[in-house]
Each structure stands twice: as C-alpha cells, then as structure tokens.
C-alpha cells in the first residue's frame, strides 16, 4: 500500500464544526494528516485530533490556538481557514455593525490565523495555507438580485462579497511574501455549496447553476486536500473556482 500523501503532516482547520470544515477534516485525515480542529464551539471529538474552542476574530485566542497545536504535535504544516459567516443585505441599507461583523470574521480572522502560523512554517521552511474565498468575491454578487429587484435586500451580499474579495487579495499578497520560505498560499472560491449556510437558498437558484445542482462540501474538501498536498508545491497565489460553471474568469 502506498503512503498516504499527508502522512506525517499536521493540519489546523478553523470552522471545523461546519459543513465544509467537517468535510475538510475528513479529507485531510483520510490523506494521513494529524488534525487540530477549531470552531467557536469546540468541535466534536475526532480520533487523535486536538479540538479547540476559538473565536478567530480575537488575536490572543488565535495565537493560543496555534501554540496549543504546536505543543501537541510539535509542528504545523497545513492551515485551512474555513471559519466564516454569511451575510445578506444591499449596500444602501446595510447596518455599519453588520459590515464590521462580517469583515471581522471572514477577513480579519483569516488574516490573524495566517499571521499566527508564519513563524512555525517559516522555521520548517514548509507550509500549505488554504483560504476559503467565494464566487461572490469575484462576480459582484448573487444574480437573484438582478433577476428580481424585489429581492435585492434579501439576496444582496455586499459585505460578504467584499470580505471574500479581501480574502482573495490576502492570498495573493501572502503567496508572494512567503514563497521563498517554502510556504504556498492558495484559496478556493466556492459557488453555492449545500450546507447550514445555504439552507435558505431557494430551489430557483439551482436553475442558475450550469451543472444543475448545488455543490457538495466533499467536492470543496477534495480540492483543499489537493492544494494541501505534496504535488501542489508549484501552485501558489491561486484562487480555484469550484462553482459548477456559474462563473468563469
Ligand atoms: N456554503 C457555501 O455555499 C459557501 C460558498 C462559498 C464560500 N463558503 C465559505 O466556506 C466556509 C465554510 O462555510 P460552510 O458552508 O461550511 O458554513 P457553516 O456555517 O457550516 O460553517 C462555518 C463555520 O465557521 C464557524 N465560525 C463562524 N464564526 C467563527 C469565529 N468567529 N471563530 C471561529 N469559527 C467561526 C461557525 O461556527 C461554523 O461552524 C465559510 O468561510 C464560507 O464563507 C461557503
């Protein structure tokens, strides 16, 4: 039997109690990685995994999370920033607090986690960072709002889209900053994926997806596991679309 590709590697996954986070943890474990799993509420125990309750918007909690993972496993090879919140609302009426909440989790939280792992990855001259962007960070938002203007407030998602566009830019910057240290930084940009985040999406949305269905968390996780693996060493600064053909760039 061949050695699993992530054997001997340690992966830290945030948002690990959610749909994509759970699927990512499963995919990385199947590929042989040891896991540190974090979410707002401690994720359910998994065999040999370190589980932690962490709010990624809080720098002190994020740094303590990384320290605990290093203490437990002695190394950190892979960071997957899955923690995120969804938000809807058109720009004209968006409360300032909603903008701050979404940017704090999706963009600042991702930045803080990336920043916290740099010293350990640099010291090993090896690292794989995978961020979760979004199709709506690229395409100006959900088409429903333009198909039916009455839906603008419910289907608009300006704060979410801007936060994910920020994640894409963060990925580009970190890829360049860390390339010489053997650390790759990539993102995936999912379209609509069936999860707790998307249960309220109307069935009509599926008509807008060329492959005719929502994506699956496992399909996002498989791409993440590839980017986390040894064969992806020359890929950095990439934002990989996983959207069933809904948006191409
Ligand atoms: N589902 C989709 O269609 C879709 C599409 C594009 C991108 N995404 C992104 O994928 C990621 C995962 O989404 P999902 O569909 O699994 O949703 P989900 O709601 O199932 O999972 C998100 C997880 O993040 C955690 N989280 C939220 N705030 C946090 C914080 N401050 N600190 C730590 N953890 C926090 C939540 O508790 C939850 O477990 C998110 O970043 C989301 O924006 C999802």
CA-to-CA gap between the ends? Answer: 39 Å
Low-pLDDT stretches: none
For the biggest sheet, the summary is: 7 strands, parallel
CATH superfamily, by name, is: NAD(P)-binding Rossmann-like Domain
Strand content: 5-15%
What's the overall geometry? globular
Helix vs. strand class: alpha/beta
Number of strands: 7
User: What small-molecule ligands were found?
Assistant: nicotinamide-adenine-dinucleotide
CATH topology name, in short, is: Rossmann fold
Which CATH architecture would you pick? 3-Layer(aba) Sandwich
What would you call the quaternary organization?
Answer: single chain
Would you write up a description of this structure?
Helix 1 crosses helix 7, helix 2 packs parallel to helix 3 and helix 3 packs parallel to helix 6. It contains 7 helices and 7 strands; from the N terminus they run E-H-E-E-H-E-H-E-H-H-H-E-H-E. Strand 6, helix 7 and strand 7 form a beta-alpha-beta unit. Helices cover 39% and strands 15% of the residues. It has 249 residues and is α/β, with parallel strands linked by helices. It has one domain: NAD(P)-binding Rossmann-like Domain (Rossmann fold), CATH 3.40.50. The longest helix is centred in the middle third of the chain and has 29 residues. A 7-stranded parallel beta sheet has the order 3-2-1-4-5-6-7, with helices on both faces. It is globular, with a radius of gyration of 18 Å. Nicotinamide-adenine-dinucleotide (NAD) binds next to helix 1 and helix 3.
